[in-house]
Structure to design on (208 residues):
């Protein structure tokens, strides 16, 4: 996509897509038939670019190993999820051309970069793949979460999980804050919705 078209699309994204509901994001950009042998990856800002990739059996086995043995509790499983999302990005990056994706949304970045919509959709897809394999014992995968204009900030989206059980808390899995292949931030949704971001100088995945 040329930069004239991309800038115009980004303007539309900021006005509409950036405020889209999680259901709207996944309906527009998600891959309902995703499986490890074929799934779509968003990049280029607002999922304006999509590429279909696959994982080898040894790569899937490596991911499965990150969830073995099953976590004893939800907190331990969130740590497993963080490691698995980071590893998934390292596997996918060279296949999708996103291995050099930088932290955040680089101004006027190229098609190899990802904004929060790309990250939210991709991370949700990866989480659904994990859940489909039975690797998530203590969490279910929800639709992406959104924050932004209501708290005076730029619109932002992220993947979301919920602890199992009737009173389970909800946690964001936000891979946008860091470069490709680094640990995502997993923090309570309520905290994130207030505008939370990692402390300056904190290592990836440090959380709140």
């Amino acid at each position: 996509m040329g930069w004239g078209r991309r800038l115009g699309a980004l303007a539309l994204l900021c006005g509409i897509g950036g405020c889209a509901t999680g259901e709207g994001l996944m309906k527009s950009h998600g891959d309902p038939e995703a499986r490890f042998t074929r799934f779509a990856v968003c990049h280029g800002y607002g999922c304006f670019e999509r590429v279909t990739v696959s994982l080898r059996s040894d790569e899937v086995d490596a991911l499965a190993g990150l969830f073995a043995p099953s976590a004893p509790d939800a907190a331990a499983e969130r740590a497993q999820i963080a490691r698995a999302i980071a590893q998934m990005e390292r596997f996918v990056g060279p296949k999708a051309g996103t291995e050099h994706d930088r932290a955040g949304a680089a101004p006027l970045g190229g098609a190899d970069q990802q904004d929060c919509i790309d990250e939210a959709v991709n991370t949700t897809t990866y989480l659904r793949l994990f859940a489909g394999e039975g690797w998530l014992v203590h969490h279910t995968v929800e639709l992406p979460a959104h924050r932004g204009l209501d708290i005076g900030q730029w619109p932002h989206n992220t993947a979301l999980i919920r602890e199992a059980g009737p009173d389970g808390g909800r946690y964001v899995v936000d891979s946008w804050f860091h470069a490709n292949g680094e640990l995502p931030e997993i923090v309570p949704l309520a905290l994130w919705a207030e505008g939370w971001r990692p402390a300056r100088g904190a290592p990836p995945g440090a959380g709140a």
Observations:
- The CA atoms of residues 119 and 176 lie 6 Å apart.
- The longest strand covers residues 139-147.
- The two ends are 38 Å apart (CA to CA).
- The chain has one domain: 22-193.
